[in-house]
User: Which sequence fits this backbone?
């Protein structure tokens, strides 16, 4: 394939356009923006080198001079949307509140760009905007007295938890679009079935749990904040 490197390389160390010749007609930002527009409108599967090339008005083979691999294109896309984080100002000094705020921003970005959940990987954590995000999170965590490696682990756990939460939201939304009833109606039916099974006596631990009373599902925003709050507390329980 044209432009494919014989050895591993980082797209960020590669010139904007390989080889000699006139000044590049397109920037990585142009290419990433085109790919993001396509993914936002038609989903990740619609993003192809041919489609992106057509979007910016160049030939498919010419695009490989800028972006050697599809994986590089994904990395450019993830970096572009990572630039949507609001990182101005200074952390508040309350690391829990600051990290919860970052988690909320991550969730909002993934909601605006649902395809991110499919392509996000730690391999893309060295891009310019990803490094800005990481540096900001470390600034938020300065008051937390744990080893540096634990801080990086915490950031990874927060991101992973947000991804799982959003992926579940997406799956529920997709299922709801494919059936003629509401999510609430389906949950009511499934809840009634589950209670019927619990009452058979085959699941004594579940029966004991339900006998103590289980709170009904709350607002997704409250559930998200509670989940992240418990995760953060696990790294430094409140005194």
Assistant:
């Amino acid at each position: 394939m044209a432009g494919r490197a014989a050895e591993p390389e980082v797209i960020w160390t590669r010139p904007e356009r390989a080889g000699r010749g006139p000044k590049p007609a397109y920037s990585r930002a142009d290419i990433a923006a085109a790919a993001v527009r396509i993914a936002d409108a038609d989903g990740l599967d619609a993003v192809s080198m041919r489609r992106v090339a057509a979007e910016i008005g160049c030939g498919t083979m010419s695009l490989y001079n800028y972006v050697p691999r599809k994986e590089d294109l994904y990395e450019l896309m993830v970096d572009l949307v990572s630039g949507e984080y609001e990182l101005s100002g200074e952390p508040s000094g309350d690391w829990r509140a600051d990290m919860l705020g970052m988690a909320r921003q991550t969730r909002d970005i993934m909601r605006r760009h649902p395809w991110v959940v499919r392509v996000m990987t730690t391999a893309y954590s060295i891009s310019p905007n990803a490094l800005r995000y990481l540096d900001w999170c470390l600034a938020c965590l300065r008051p937390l007295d744990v080893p540096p490696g634990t801080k990086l682990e915490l950031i990874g756990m927060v991101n992973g938890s947000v991804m799982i939460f959003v992926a579940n939201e997406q799956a529920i939304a997709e299922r709801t679009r494919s059936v003629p009833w509401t999510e609430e109606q389906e949950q009511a039916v499934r809840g009634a079935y589950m209670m019927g099974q619990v009452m058979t006596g085959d699941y004594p631990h579940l029966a004991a749990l339900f006998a103590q009373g289980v709170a009904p599902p709350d607002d997704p925003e409250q559930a998200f904040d509670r989940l992240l709050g418990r995760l953060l507390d696990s790294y430094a329980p409140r005194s």
About this structure: Residues 107 and 162 are 6 Å apart (CA to CA).
